[in-house]
Amino acid sequence: MAAKTYNNFTVSRPQEWIAHVEINRPEKLNAFTEEMWTTLPTVFDDLSEDPTVRAIVFSGAGEKAFSAGLDLAAASVPGSFFNPEPEDVADAARFAARVRRFAYKFQDCVSSIERCEKPVICVLHGVSIGMAIDISVCADLRICTSDVSFSVKEVDVGIASDVSTLTRLPKVVGSYAWVKDVCLTARTFGAEEALRVGFVNSIFPSKATAVQEAMRVAGVMASKSPVAIQAIKEFLDWSRDHDVATGLKYTAVYNAAAVNTKDVPTAMAALRARKVPRFEKL
């Protein structure tokens, strides 16, 4: 299938109903510039609205890294928020307002992965630090390689991560104490530790086998009713952030419309006949 290319991202269609997004800056370990993170929502919003896409695999090009996080050299140019000019900070309140708007924009760009209506499977390999963690906790599933090297790196550059990790990582893993450990120390942790605490779903010996597994899982998801898959992702993310009673009410209201789909009789007929159902575009 034809590939679509964005600046520093490549989107291909390796299988029916599946999109593969690659961060495509391997010569810089897929480190993110401002242009890249502002392109991210365009990529995932396009796929979210594409009726021919039912599942997405997200990986990094090259063999060395999923992503080395934020490109510090690009972020530290004079006049940037990390290296402001004296006149920029002359009025602390006005500069703080600019930084706050900048942070909201940054957060929204990364949140586009979670906001995407289609399930996203993130394949993490090699160097996966800083913004790589921010991105991956927005995905629905995480698969990694045995040689992956993780770190919540922001404290080492003097900041508390305010993009995604500190908010979402505690809701992904099973140990709040572990989250505090890795965020306060910036220590490196590997695949086995990530699996033990529930940060990743599975480990594979190479990037190729990890991507292959992600494609397999994406294929399983894509074989289901796209109406049901979209609703499940919506319900789980909503219920994570709300109490049980509110979550139950929301799912009931949502499903009042969603269950009126042709996918239900199609799926039930296929189950009775022991056949694989075929569903229409979303």
Automatic annotation (TrEMBL):
<keyword id="KW-0413">Isomerase</keyword>
<comment type="similarity">
    <text>Belongs to the enoyl-CoA hydratase/isomerase family.</text>
</comment>
<comment type="pathway">
    <text>Lipid metabolism; fatty acid beta-oxidation.</text>
</comment>
<keyword id="KW-0007">Acetylation</keyword>
<protein>
    <recommendedName>
        <fullName>Enoyl-CoA hydratase</fullName>
    </recommendedName>
</protein>
<dbReference type="GO" id="GO:0005777">
    <property type="term" value="C:peroxisome"/>
</dbReference>
<keyword id="KW-0276">Fatty acid metabolism</keyword>
<dbReference type="Pfam" id="PF00378">
    <property type="entry name" value="ECH_1"/>
</dbReference>
<dbReference type="InterPro" id="IPR045002">
    <property type="entry name" value="Ech1-like"/>
</dbReference>
<keyword id="KW-0576">Peroxisome</keyword>
<dbReference type="GO" id="GO:0005739">
    <property type="term" value="C:mitochondrion"/>
</dbReference>
<keyword id="KW-0443">Lipid metabolism</keyword>
<dbReference type="InterPro" id="IPR029045">
    <property type="entry name" value="ClpP/crotonase-like_dom_sf"/>
</dbReference>
<dbReference type="InterPro" id="IPR014748">
    <property type="entry name" value="Enoyl-CoA_hydra_C"/>
</dbReference>
<dbReference type="InterPro" id="IPR001753">
    <property type="entry name" value="Enoyl-CoA_hydra/iso"/>
</dbReference>
<dbReference type="GO" id="GO:0051750">
    <property type="term" value="F:delta(3,5)-delta(2,4)-dienoyl-CoA isomerase activity"/>
</dbReference>
<dbReference type="GO" id="GO:0006631">
    <property type="term" value="P:fatty acid metabolic process"/>
</dbReference>
